[in-house]
Amino acid sequence: MGNVEGMSTETVPPTAAEDLPSTAPAATPQQDTDAEVEERSGYRRPAIDVPALTALLDGKYAEVRNLVRTNLAEYAGILTDAEEMTRDEFRERVKDVVVEMASTGQTGMGFPEEYGGGGDIGASVAAFETLAYGDLSVLVKVGVQFGLFGGAILQLGSKEHHDAYLADLITGKLMGCFAMTESGHGSNVQALGTVATYDVATQEFVVTTTREDARKDYIGNAAKHAEIAVVFAQLEVAGKSEGVHAFVVPIRDRDGGTLPGVRIEDDGLKMGLNGVDNGRIWFDGVRIPRTALLNRFADVTPSGVYESEIENPNRRFFTMLGTLVQGRVCVGGGGINAAKVAIAIAVKYALKRRQFEATSEDEEELLLDYGLHQRRLLPLLADTYALHFAQEVVAGQLHDVTSGIETSEHAKRELESRAAGTKALGTWHATRTIQECREACGGAGYLAENRFAALKADTDVFTTFEGDNHVLLQLVAKGLLTDYASDFEDLDQLGTVRFVTNLAVETVIEKTAVHKLLERVKDLLPGGDQWDQEAGLLDSDYQLAMLRFREEHMLSGVARRLKRGIDQKMNPGEVFSRVQDHVIAAARAHVERLVLEAFVAKVEALPDGENKIALRLLCDLHALGVIESDRAWFMEHGRLSVARSKAISREIGSLCRKVRPLADDLVDAFAVPPEMLRSPSLLG
Amino acid sequence: MGNVEGMSTETVPPTAAEDLPSTAPAATPQQDTDAEVEERSGYRRPAIDVPALTALLDGKYAEVRNLVRTNLAEYAGILTDAEEMTRDEFRERVKDVVVEMASTGQTGMGFPEEYGGGGDIGASVAAFETLAYGDLSVLVKVGVQFGLFGGAILQLGSKEHHDAYLADLITGKLMGCFAMTESGHGSNVQALGTVATYDVATQEFVVTTTREDARKDYIGNAAKHAEIAVVFAQLEVAGKSEGVHAFVVPIRDRDGGTLPGVRIEDDGLKMGLNGVDNGRIWFDGVRIPRTALLNRFADVTPSGVYESEIENPNRRFFTMLGTLVQGRVCVGGGGINAAKVAIAIAVKYALKRRQFEATSEDEEELLLDYGLHQRRLLPLLADTYALHFAQEVVAGQLHDVTSGIETSEHAKRELESRAAGTKALGTWHATRTIQECREACGGAGYLAENRFAALKADTDVFTTFEGDNHVLLQLVAKGLLTDYASDFEDLDQLGTVRFVTNLAVETVIEKTAVHKLLERVKDLLPGGDQWDQEAGLLDSDYQLAMLRFREEHMLSGVARRLKRGIDQKMNPGEVFSRVQDHVIAAARAHVERLVLEAFVAKVEALPDGENKIALRLLCDLHALGVIESDRAWFMEHGRLSVARSKAISREIGSLCRKVRPLADDLVDAFAVPPEMLRSPSLLG
Asked: For A588, which residue in chain B has the nearest alpha carbon?
């Protein structure tokens, strides 16, 4: 094989003597051809053991994932139902499928065994993730019923509530909804306008929608199926507001009729997920018994005394919001698995469809043999693997914290941050990957039968629900800046600015978790030009050092900028506004480092073999892709020379060519049931 | 107003002494506060004259655009029809609206007056673009009927065909389709598998689908409404293949029944545009008269002799494909105008919705007062203006070429290239903008009533139809590399590689159109550090010089890499595959330069005044955004220092803050009818 890049520059005319653009890696005289490099390095194409790779991806929950795969194939008709049924019919169909799947135990794995659950949070996350291979209305309906509604009863309620509701909600006999968001308040839950006032005379709470934009909105299961709502409202006891609490409020009778004082409106057609009945709810003086307060963390005595073991009201609030963590872990995993479906279809199509004569005049070229097509799809495939393994880590942490295996406050906070960050990157990855894959499948990708229509429309809101991605990254940054200080969760934006600026900047920097990691970084990236020759681009220590350096630098930069703004007597809100994109960038840098660490650790732990070689290629492709996409930053901060920046782009091209012959096996290893790939006019 | 960025770095601890990340512009000691800079430069907030700005945007076709706005408001119910009707009902509704709009003259402006048209191509493009404010099934149905079908009859047919069809198709009485694409061949039209064989005995053509993947596919109007298809097929005369030609083939009788030998299948549900009836067509020995050949450029005599004034078969083919140019101009404009709807909604929502306390403890902050939100939306607004003016240029060129005002071959080729490039950038811009705007509107953005669902689903295929964007950018690059040589259109990828490599590289570079522009570039970007201090970031000569330099450098790099690959005896297809991302990058750089030139020229031509000040801010924001997004490349090629790269990011932040108070007026100037903004739960 010749190499267009590996030639001398001596014949280049004077007007074009510079190196070639990095988007188009060029030659340096000392560069060898790929073939030479491969021969010298002993590189040869690995033969992937697909079942073994699937087993690695499935991890400890292979059995659970296979149960879900079987169920998905069993109910494959739901994909066409989504297209052919009316909205009402499809909502009923989705509900039925959810209830039938519940009977297999698939959806109740996270609940205590005494109520019919599986008693294993990790298994419940694995089941949910795998469900994302199929129709996503089913996925989201499961999330609403068992994750949000069921999770709130389980985690915010006490035994009394568990006894009353869990057994029936696990089977789907009792459907409920999670009524947190209001039209006027999504991310800022603390400012909700729904109020629950304790009436000591009747020992009841009176739930009221106090203004129009305080109506509950976008609530899944509300428009049609929920009998019960877990309602988040400002608790008022004896004229004092105690902050947001959760209450069990019946909203429908068994016949589906709306109860007195409750008004429900359908949110109507949505971009996607039309098998889920989202709606709006207004409460007009709805009375519920005192015991309807989900009282695990706070209670009101019959005589009207508010009691809680958590004294700080903000802390109490954020403890209750902890119920959202599992939802975030699940949504992130759902997004990543939806991306797998898209990339599997696009790769398989690119291995079937030919277009234009290129290397031969007799036959058109396979799409995946075009360099650009490789560049479009294969880094996304590598990122999908990386995020899969990062997701495995956060799901494991969730399991440990929720199951009481890990009990430290710090671990809980780190979990919240990691769940937020993985959710943000995983769902953005889904949006981007599905879009690129649709375009890479041309006009056929636009037909509903080929899956992208549903994947794109259904996953679109993943970047918003269970926490807007930008708000979640701010949460990540706040945790980093305060080193998950005991009160970090209470801090709103003003509070964060004040907190940070009350510390010496050095303290902030020393407190950052990443700071400890920097010793190795200094060895690997000593600055100047020296390191430039030393570390190999395919050395994962080098790749990690780059991401660690960036994270630490961005984070300390944020701290300094916040502090300086305050020193200059600026309004803290304005300081925050101006530093905000820096805050988001720092959080993203942090999460990208965690993702790479997860992938590297997974690869290193593997026994030597073909699969390890293949995954190492993918891991390198992922790592260099992350560095390349922010190479301007690295150059601006003296950690990447022009020559090395171009070398990275060249290496990515070379890695794509090496991954190309492995691509089919790599997507097969996801083990997406063929019925879920569907795509008759792409793959048929 | 204080400035968080303008402080000394003396107090910075040693571990963090570098400049701050560019994503978060930092201080340099000499930097003044915005307020000081603004005072010294005489900057003050301009007061936009919205009607005057609308008049500027509408240009010479204000009257036409207002007619369309009136029609859109008249038929505003179509937006809800799209949600509430069944697919069959909605298809009929869309057809009816198209026919009713036709009766206003809106859709026939590009046809000769003698057949009832308006005789003004430019007006027809303006009408089409404006129609993109409304339901996009209507837009696309109009495009299929009047642009593709009608355009083929007009441009490929002779008077006989005009007399037979134009009057009826202009009124919509005769519906037709444009049957070019096949399941197995989209971009590579030259390889179509449908064959039309001349039977001298009966003086008929026999049209046949020769293999399964040669069925016509994704054909708009085919599934339901077309009586007639313009079918692109390989013409065979006397045993010899003469290449692809277009034929008029009746496919349905007046009652809608499929004619003998024709089989039609519905493409079924699509991601969007479900008011358009796309379908598949198979032909089994369908006989059509000899006169059914659209014979403007080639004909077959009764006795079976093939005749054409264009000798080169490839040239002939590409001349016929010229009918696609108008479609590309229209789709690009449609995408840009759909993006206007999205950005108008997102900006207006961000000026209404508050979230989190930031600068005040009493009131939550408007979304658009957050730095990040400004950074997300305002550069997209600036890009939308830039693309609008670039679209105006290409639409003007189309008018001049099609109306015979401009007749040179070179102008035609440049038009083809510019139409391809503007279509690619305009439609990608639509995809990106609609996505960002949806996310910026949170969960409410997911509800169908708030427009993004339809905008996103309907525009998605714009990046694919009328030419896949990547393939179109390759066309642009080919034109640049060959300086629109007389035979450049014939060149497939192999041919292009050979063509380029047969020239001396210097010749290629000298031939590039951009090369002539480089003298000014050398003055402005002399290299080294000197220029770094000299040119102001807000100097449009500097901005243009940067884009011209990049374009020329990328283009000559492509030429060199192609040539070197051949010199090294690589397979030309493999050379092309490896250089392909570089080819695409060069083409994109070219089009971005054209877009900026169009915006700069428009602003410079304006009389001094408030609107000019406002547009200059937007133009700077656009220009620096383009440079920033490729700043790694400029650093890698010695045309941007680290300090200046960071200064650009800072300047963008500052420009966003200046554009922020103008944003409402800037989106109002698009004059999107309020009925088309809709969005009751965002703006109501």
From this structure: B23
